[in-house]
Write a structure and sequence with these properties.
379 residues; alpha/beta; Purple Acid Phosphatase, chain A, domain 2; six-stranded mixed beta sheet; 23% strand
């Protein structure tokens, strides 16, 4: 039995520039801390190796503190052997990075300098490190290299997959570096561990993308995880078990709103419990038709709960303003200039010939106009 933890795409040092500074700091910290969680997951599963299938670092020239502190964290998990393979973000072209790691690495860190088979002590690793950011060919083609007969064969690659049958031969190297989805069969592998796709994905019984151990966007919602892989013997189907390793939850909340909807109640029903919110990033997207007062109530409800979360963002561009005479009447019962401006904004907010951004601007302006009038009335 050979058991290991398969992970990839840690992207240590990722700047997260689209987020507020306090959020960026938290996101960077949990990415570093995920090394400890990977080591803990390996121990709990009885796995002696953690195989990182590329993009351990976000850049070819990470700050010295990023590199050194990552190696220090790995050194502290001395009972685990870490195998670092270059991906497209930290390819072999980053010679200074890999020379630094080779010089400073602790004894329990193994580097993949080329495609030569590596003896892991119980299995043989056939790696396909990225030579450059865009290699332009299927580097896993070399995984057919010979290893001692009867040994377990594990491939480690980084990149996307594609069905090449339409090209005439599944054994041919793919265009633009794409990986043959049946590479494991073609190369006689017992398991092929892939990186690059940040969501966990099963390609076949013995070919998996591990996904990132700490989620980093709303494209792949939920929490990060890794894979515990157990192979009884050469030729046996591996047992693959996902294990949670993430600390933060990325949650996408789609809201479908009708003109009769109570927006605060809709928001309250969709949100997670209070205990989960501090470690959650939320992206609210809304579609449907709303009145002006509804839109105001929606914005107010989101503003009230936003401080509960690590981050809450919203995209209301798909919402269409419903022409509601009562809303416009509340803005200016006399039918004067304010009423005319409100009617013009309402029409623009519903105009399908305008761009989504222009409709959003009109809807926001109308909502603000209503808010100003309401505040004056309250005074």
């Amino acid at each position: 039995m050979f058991r290991f933890l398969h992970s990839s795409d840690l992207h240590l040092g990722k700047p997260f520039g689209r987020h507020a500074e306090d959020v960026r700091g938290r996101l960077r910290q949990v990415r570093h801390d995920v090394l400890d969680r990977l080591a803990a997951a390996a121990r709990e599963a009885g796995a002696a190796h953690v195989l990182l299938a590329g993009d351990t670092f976000d850049q070819e020239t990470p700050a010295p503190t990023i590199t050194r502190q990552a190696l220090n964290a790995m050194a502290q998990a001395a009972d685990v052997t870490w195998v670092l393979m270059p991906g497209n973000h930290d390819s072999l072209a980053a010679s200074e990075l890999w020379q630094t790691i080779a010089r400073d690495r602790p004894d329990n860190v193994m580097l993949v300098p080329d495609a030569a088979p590596m003896d892991l002590g119980g299995a043989y690793l056939l790696p396909a490190p990225c030579t450059t950011r865009n290699p332009g060919r299927d580097l896993t083609f070399e995984m057919a290299a010979a290893t001692p007969e009867g040994g377990i064969r594990i491939g480690l690659g980084h990149g996307g997959i594609q069905d090449f049958k339409s090209l005439g031969s599944v054994a041919a190297e793919g265009p633009s570096g794409t990986i043959a989805p049946d590479r494991a069969a073609l190369a006689g592998l017992d398991y092929l561990g892939l990186g690059d796709w940040h969501g966990q994905l099963k390609v076949s019984d013995n070919t998996w993308y591990s996904g990132t151990p700490e989620a980093d966007s709303f494209k792949h919602t939920g929490m990060g995880s890794a894979l515990v892989v157990s192979i009884a013997e050469a030729g046996a189907t591996p047992t693959v078990t996902p294990v949670q390793t993430g600390a933060l939850h990325w949650l996408r909340l789609p809201l479908d709103i009708t003109p009769e909807e109570d927006c605060p109640s809709l928001v309250a029903a969709a949100l997670p419990p209070l205990a989960q919110r501090r470690d959650t990033l939320v992206q609210v997207t809304a579609q449907g038709r709303v009145g002006v007062q509804q839109l105001q109530a929606l914005n107010a409800a989101l503003a009230r709960v936003a401080p509960d979360f690590l981050s809450l963002s919203e995209d209301l561009t798909a919402l269409r303003l419903a022409h509601d005479g009562a809303d416009l009447e509340a803005i200016d019962p006399s039918g004067g200039a304010l009423r005319q401006a409100a009617e013009a904004l309402s029409a623009q907010g519903q105009d399908g010939d305008l761009s989504a951004e222009d409709r959003r601007i009109a809807a926001t302006a109308l909502s603000q106009l209503f808010s100003f009038v309401a505040e004056e009335g309250a005074e």
